[in-house]
């Protein structure tokens, strides 16, 4: 009986670990901090903290993520624009938003000249991290499992965005 419980416990822990890695790989967790480079909008860490607050600072400036299914923007279906919460640069049209089922707002394409990409290997495999072109803030990641016409899924942290209805 003890062997069965130990084996079952091991399998349960292994399954939980695999599920955890799959969840973390789905979007923003474990990325690098702000993209390297020179940006139009530059502020000290203290200025960013004061402007953004703790949760947004963690995401935009430190590459963190919010818990899945926690963003009010996940259920935002009005017409409008999703902009950077750090510098207000328009990033995504509501027309490009779709329901990915991942727990984070997802888009099949950004607005022209809105985002920049960098390589992220923080979880032990390579992903493409998405940043605001103007301030360098971390927004999320892009994956190649999205809908037509691009086949891309820009999986964004809702706290990295602000919505402006039209």
Q: Proportion of β residues?
A: 15-25%
State the helicity in percent bands.
Answer: 25-40%
> Can you count the beta strands?
9
**How many helical stretches?**
2
CATH superfamily: Peptide methionine sulfoxide reductase
Shape: globular
CATH architecture: Beta Complex
Measured between the Cα atoms of the first and last residue, the distance is 64 Å
Give the tally of structural domains. Answer: 1
Kindly identify the CATH topology.
Answer: Metal Binding Protein, Guanine Nucleotide Exchange Factor, Chain A
Classified by CATH, the class is Mainly Beta
Structural class: alpha+beta
Summarize the structure.
Helices cover 26% and strands 24% of the residues. Strands 3-4-8-7-6-5 form a 6-stranded antiparallel beta sheet. The protein has a 3-stranded antiparallel beta sheet with strand order 2-1-9, with no helix packed on it. The chain is of the alpha+beta class and 166 residues long.
